[in-house]
Design goal:
Elements: H1 2-23, H2 63-68, H3 70-73, H4 79-87, E1 90-94, H5 100-110, E2 114-118, H6 143-154, E3 159-163, H7 172-176, E4 181-184, H8 189-202, E5 206-212, E6 215-221, H9 229-232, H10 245-248, H11 253-271, E7 280-285, E8 290-295, H12 314-319, H13 322-326, E9 346-348, H14 352-359, H15 372-386, E10 390-393, H16 397-402, E11 409-410, H17 416-429, E12 437-441, H18 447-456, E13 462-467, H19 469-476
Helix pairs in contact: 5-6, 5-11, 15-17
Length: 484
């Protein structure tokens, strides 16, 4: 046994000598001993080529990149090659709002090398509960600039390109063609059709999502032989069936969850891994705690954009009138004003104080279990009997509770038609009710006009609305009224 140990020691010494000779003896370069810290074989952050005793698979990532994305790279679904592909890829995020904030941040965090941000809006205080890219200090700043700053703070190695001019038919196809994947983080029908058409024209996949209230949806279009947006929705929804976050509201974390899933879908598309939601729609009911996936109709051979024989190029995108096609504007903002009542049928917000003074008494509070129709009928009877005006606020109950004109009663517009019918029945029993003075108000002066006309058509003779609604009240009468 002792002889065998001596032989192994001699062999070990011989191997050490050969190793030192091969490395070039001197300076301790060939020292064999306990492991010691080593720097990268070149400038810090340079490409990882491997040390004397180890190597790489040729992924080309730097030592810094390997370290930064290590928890993601070790996933079997990603690995070094797909991570390197992400680093060389690009994504265009259209809309730096509730969806674009988490989507853009996660794309940069996961290593997408170049991110474009399209937005022409500014940061508003009412955005902050959901648009997590933007801090309080960014209120009033350009959203695209604020998004760029947020991404750079998160990952300085991500190249960020801002497009402050926004998206329009003239620039959409050319802009989309500069990126590998496009994320639709907008909130209106014209932009959805425009982005889908531009992706078809440029040959790019589209990750499209929507979030409203406590619900969200997500799908991938024009990818892997799947349908484009026009295939699934050949006809746009009616404008009155579309709502925005500014009108319907949204729970802050819902677009956060959906936007994060958009980033996941974009990564799957960019790396060629996983099963992208092409031809499928993910539906999130955050309040009910359910997520389900439904299958969409397949690609339509007769689709005007991507169908067989369709020649939908950049010129066709630039020439198409998306506003006329959908009946909606491309930019989020106040709904187009309606013109139903004449000047004599409207009250200026500045004169609303006089109406309130003549009302002289608070409006009736709803009784237990009292429906809006019952409340309106009772309020009309009481106002007619007292000979005073009745203020009716037709905003949703949640908005009315945020702030309202003193003395007003709340009959939401969604319930107003049945309420007007009930009021007409009340007037049949008591004709004096038809002569009650009624002043209606809403948020911007649109729904109130339609509600006023509904009463007029049912025989009510002294009906007016507040021009400009509660927004005009805040501007002309009381700046302390909350803005929402």
């Amino acid at each position: 046994m002792e002889a065998e140990l001596e032989r192994l020691r001699a062999e070990n010494a011989s191997l050490r000598g050969q190793l030192e000779e091969a490395r070039g003896a001197g300076g301790g370069a060939g020292r064999v001993g306990p492991p010691r810290a080593r720097g990268p074989p070149g400038p810090p952050g340079g490409p990882v080529a491997g040390g004397e005793l180890w190597g790489t698979s040729g992924h080309g990532m730097t030592r810094e990149q390997v370290s930064r994305y290590s928890r993601q790279v070790i996933l079997e679904q990603i690995g070094p090659d797909r991570q390197a592909r992400l680093l060389a890829s690009s994504a265009l995020v259209v809309g730096a709002g509730g969806l674009g904030s988490p989507a853009g941040l996660y794309l940069a965090a996961m290593g997408v090398g170049r991110v474009g941000v399209v937005d022409r809006d500014t940061v508003d205080a009412s955005n902050l509960h959901r648009q997590i890219m933007h801090p309080e200090a960014s209120v009033g700043a350009h959203k695209a600039d604020s998004a760029r700053d947020a991404i750079r703070r998160l990952n300085a190695s991500c190249a960020v390109e801002v497009h402050r001019e926004g998206l329009h038919p003239g620039n959409a196809a050319g802009l989309v063609a500069r990126y590998d994947v496009v994320l639709d983080c907008t909130d209106n029908a014209p932009s959805r059709y425009l982005l889908s058409d531009a992706c078809v024209a440029a040959g790019r996949p589209l990750v499209s999502a929507a979030a409203l209230g406590t619900d969200g949806q997500l799908s991938v279009y024009h990818h892997g032989g799947g349908p484009c947006y026009r295939c699934v929705h050949p006809r746009p929804p009616r404008p009155e069936h579309c709502a925005s976050c500014s009108d319907a509201g949204v729970l802050g974390a819902v677009p956060g969850a959906v936007g994060a899933l958009q980033a996941v879908e974009a990564v799957k598309v960019l790396t060629g891994a996983g099963e992208p939601l092409s031809g499928r729609l993910l539906v999130l009911d955050a309040w009910g705690g359910t997520v389900r996936t439904v299958r969409l109709r397949g690609r339509d051979p007769g689709c005007a954009a991507c169908g067989d024989g369709a020649a939908w190029g950049p010129g066709a995108v630039a020439a198409f009138d998306y506003r006329a096609f959908t009946g909606q504007e491309m930019e989020e903002g106040p709904a187009a004003g309606v013109a139903v009542l004449g000047p004599g049928e409207r009250v200026l917000a500045g004169d609303l104080g006089g109406v309130v003074a003549r009302a002289a008494a608070p409006g009736p509070a709803p009784g237990a279990g009292e429906a809006p129709a019952e409340l309106l009928g009772r309020a009309l009877r009481e106002a007619a009997a007292a000979g005073r005006p009745l203020l009716v606020d037709v905003r949703p109950a949640g908005q009315w509770r945020l702030g309202h004109v003193r003395g007003s009663v709340n009959v939401p517009y969604s319930s107003f038609w049945s309420a007007a019918q009930r009021a007409a029945a009340e007037a049949e029993a008591d004709p004096a009710v038809r002569d009650a003075e009624v002043v209606l108000v809403c948020r911007r002066g649109n729904d109130s006009q339609l509600a006023a006309r509904a009463l007029q058509e049912r025989g009510f003779t002294h009906v007016r609305d507040v021009a400009g609604g509660m927004e005009a009240f805040r501007e002309a009468v009381d700046a302390s009224f909350p803005e929402y």
